[in-house]
Amino acid sequence: MKMNILVTVDSNYLHPLTVMLKSLFMNNPNEQFSIYLVQSSIPDQQLELLDAFISGEGHEFHNIPIDDQLFSDAPTLMHYTKTMYYRLLAHKFLPQHLDRILYLDPDILVINRIRELYELDLEGYLFAAADHRTMPIKEINKIRFNPFDLEAYYNSGVLLMNLPLLRETIDEKEIFDFVEKYHSKLIMPDQDIMNALYSKKIKGIDEVKYNYDARYYNIYKLKSSGLFDMDYVMNHTVILHFCGKKKPWKKNYSGKFHSLYKHYEKITNDAVAALEGAKMGAASEKAN
Amino acid sequence: MKMNILVTVDSNYLHPLTVMLKSLFMNNPNEQFSIYLVQSSIPDQQLELLDAFISGEGHEFHNIPIDDQLFSDAPTLMHYTKTMYYRLLAHKFLPQHLDRILYLDPDILVINRIRELYELDLEGYLFAAADHRTMPIKEINKIRFNPFDLEAYYNSGVLLMNLPLLRETIDEKEIFDFVEKYHSKLIMPDQDIMNALYSKKIKGIDEVKYNYDARYYNIYKLKSSGLFDMDYVMNHTVILHFCGKKKPWKKNYSGKFHSLYKHYEKITNDAVAALEGAKMGAASEKAN
């Protein structure tokens, strides 16, 4: 059975998006993916290349262009654009026949099989997501959202979605009102909204397995008394998430998973360059 | 055209050998390899599994068992066994029709295309090998082998062999006499022999590209004024060599390429486990 993957990026994140997808495809052989991209600003030429890349890997690409007029009532926030709503309101734009989809951030490597997560029983929850409980940031976020009585603060970078229930439940007006009221407190807007409004309707999943924060190898290892060593991570972790401001596709990154990321990036660049070469070859043949 | 690869390991190194081969196969798609294993002590069952692994990946396996009686005149050295001669005398055991072969140590990851190295013009040299000139060990080895007037000290872990010339030139008696005479000075026996006796007949190749010492990321980067960063290595380095006593398949290893190695090790283990599972399935079917 095909697995549906949701991504919502702008042009700046197309490069890491292709790396994430390449790692997903390579480490899930014999699987078929339908990739849904919800976006409003990516030029056609770039969309064509992404389509060629995904199709060339044997998977399906669905572009879901958003008319930002749809969000004319939505408040904006500092330097964030209205794209921050795409993730939480994706069920409004996705085809009605889809009943589940796995949202993945672009700053991710998928290094093992993803089907077990995809098939998780959602038991009436809106989402499944990992609570980054290993890290001190959790306490900070709990205090920041004290009025909402959060039991956990979930990371929204890996989000399994219960689409029929989301269509019934999520009210865009509630979200817009929340942003109006709390805009001064929002640091990571869509993640904050998700936690404040829907925390109790999120099923927790294992962060080490499905949303491993790549910055914290030493902390995970220490807190597990050495159990979560590199062998453990490579054997059990499915999703490595390069959280934080320093990104492995930028200069001066360093970290435990740097070489692994860069190797996938190289393989991805080679695949994309081959497509571009083929396209230019075809274009020059046409011109002759 | 098929590429010939030479390996000489005992049972203790079969595991890293399979990881090395898997990385070679994965990063050289559309290539055909013939793997020649020169050995004397590996049990048949392990050889069958290695054969199944290599065949399953679409390549050829040739076992070249050595009768150690052939080395009855050869001196042994401390804890080294006579297997130390297999690499330098491999041309005696390999099929006569082969005209070149690339020897690879098992503590290697091949992360890019290897054909350019394989097709290097050997111009009358016996071997092509990398001089580890970035590292201070070179000076030590030059002093140690002062009587031989070495211009360079080559690493024997990656060795392209000119087989017709080796058959004409290399005299096993010269090697045995050398070992008798200098046994107290030999630290890495086959590498020392190669350098002392044949240094001037070795064509130097770029160590960063073809024999990158995985311990020294920071030194390579520093000495190149930042040029050899992780992007450069992933784009240009073909052979990552995990030199030294600490090996990435052992506990408590750490280093810049740890996650990359462990990821390949995991993929390799999965492939081997699938073969073992299939074999057990076949055996139990046969029993029924």
Notes on the structure:
The structure is a homodimer of 288-residue chains. Chain A is of the alpha/beta class and 288 residues long. Chain A has a single domain, classed as Alpha-Beta Complex (Spore Coat Polysaccharide Biosynthesis Protein SpsA, Chain A). Helices cover 40% and strands 17% of the residues of chain A. Chain A contains eleven helices and ten strands. In chain A, the strands form two sheets. A seven-stranded mixed sheet of chain A has the order 3-2-1-4-7-6-8, with helices on both faces. A three-stranded mixed sheet of chain A has the order 5-10-9. In chain A, helix 1 (14-26) links the parallel strand 1 (3-7) and strand 2. In chain A, helix 1 (14-26) crosses helix 11. The longest helix of chain A has 30 residues, at 258-287. The radius of gyration of chain A is 19 Å and the shape is globular. The N and C termini of chain A lie far apart (44 Å). In chain A, 41% of the residues are buried.
**Can you tell me the CATH architecture of chain A?**
Alpha-Beta Complex
Average pLDDT taken over every residue of chain A: 90
Structural category of chain A is alpha/beta
Through-space gap between termini of chain A = 44 Å
How large is the radius of gyration of chain A?
19 Å
Biggest sheet strand line-up of chain A: 3-2-1-4-7-6-8
**What is the domain total for the residues of chain A?**
1
CATH C-level category of chain A: Alpha Beta
Number of helices of chain A: 11
Q: What is the strand tally of chain A? A: 10
Oligomer: homodimer
CATH topology name of chain A: Spore Coat Polysaccharide Biosynthesis Protein SpsA, Chain A
Biggest sheet of chain A, in brief? 7 strands, mixed
Uncertain segments of chain A are none
Estimate the helix proportion of chain A, in percent: 25-40%
Which percent band covers the strand fraction of chain A? 15-25%
Report the order of strands and helices of chain A.
EHEHEEEHEHEHHHEHEHHEH
Note the overall shape of chain A: globular
Most extensive interface, residues per chain?
A: A-B, 19 and 19 residues
Output the CATH homologous superfamily of chain A. Answer: Spore Coat Polysaccharide Biosynthesis Protein SpsA, Chain A
